[in-house]
Amino acid sequence: MVCAVRSVTERGRPDPTGPTGPTGLHPPTSDSMTKDHAPPSSRRHRRGDESPAPVVPPTYPDTGTKQIEPADFAAMQARLDAFIERRFAPMIPALGEAFFQPARRGELDDPGLREAFRSWSLLGYRDPQGLRLIDMFAAAGLHAEPHIDRALNAMRQARFRVLRISSRNEHQKLLATFDLLDDAEVSLLDRLAYDQVAVDEMLCGWFFPAAGIWRALGAVTRVAKVSGDELRAAISSLAAHEQMSPAELGERRSMKLFWMLYRATALAPSV
């Protein structure tokens, strides 16, 4: 099986149709890496107290007919960044070391990979009680305004997806896609991705639902020069190794899945 994965898309300029990803998490640079890559527990576990887990409110289906305004995401993310800085700043470097363990030295400061780390830290990392940082923020109740609550609700439903492009809608800039993890048909709105991918190419990254369509959150990896069957075989192999379904990989092993896709280019023959 041969895969080739192009490098992470650099979203240096904001997409005017949505957010560019969480901004309050700062991974280590090449000068700060250590040999300790173990993901940390949250602060309450490190202190060993017996306080109960926070009550996390449930998510709800987004029934809105309009897309969430970028300003609403910005307002929500500003509060989220402040919450993470106040509550979890000491553990972020260790999370970065865990995520970047497979990285080569020249990749530690890559903007696309650092953005991929920020998304994983917020949406993929889970503490021993199964809570994500974004869930802990939701439990803190710092998002009472309806427009901010809607943005947070959408981001909490973000999923790591591996999307195969089925067709392109030029008028609406929509991509009809198929998720290789859960076999779902996904309508994707992402102007940057639309300009760069063709039918039958694949994307992987974090995507969230809003107003009936899915949007990219942060960096997206473009998977090229590999067939859907080859990629599905690679995903199935990883799922078997982890003893879970492909859909569960996106839920519980998104970091391993990301690096498998990103590193698959090393398996391609030189041309």
Class from helix and strand fractions: alpha+beta
| Number of distinct beta strands | 6
The count of helical stretches stands at: 10
Give the overall shape, derived from the CA principal axes.
globular
What Rg do the Cα atoms give?
A: 18 Å
Helix content: 25-40%
Straight-line N-to-C gap: 16 Å
Strand content: 15-25%
Give me the strand/helix succession: EHHHHHHEEEHEEHHH
Strand order across the largest sheet: 2-3-4-6-5
**Uncertain segments:** 1-18, 20-24, 27-38, 43-49, 265-271
What is the arithmetic mean of pLDDT?
80
| Total domain count | 2
- Describe the sheet with the most strands: 5 strands, mixed, barrel
Task: Give a brief rundown of this model.
The protein has 271 residues and is α+β, with helices and mostly antiparallel strands.
Tell me what the structure shows:
Helix content is 37%, strand content 18%. The chain has 271 residues and is an alpha+beta fold. The chain has two domains: 20-48 and 64-156, no CATH class; 159-267, OB fold (Dihydrolipoamide Acetyltransferase, E2P). A five-stranded mixed β-barrel has the order 2-3-4-6-5. A hairpin with a 5-residue loop joins strand 3 and strand 4. The relative contact order is 0.20. The model is unreliable at 1-18, 20-24, 27-38, 43-49 and 265-271 (pLDDT under 50).
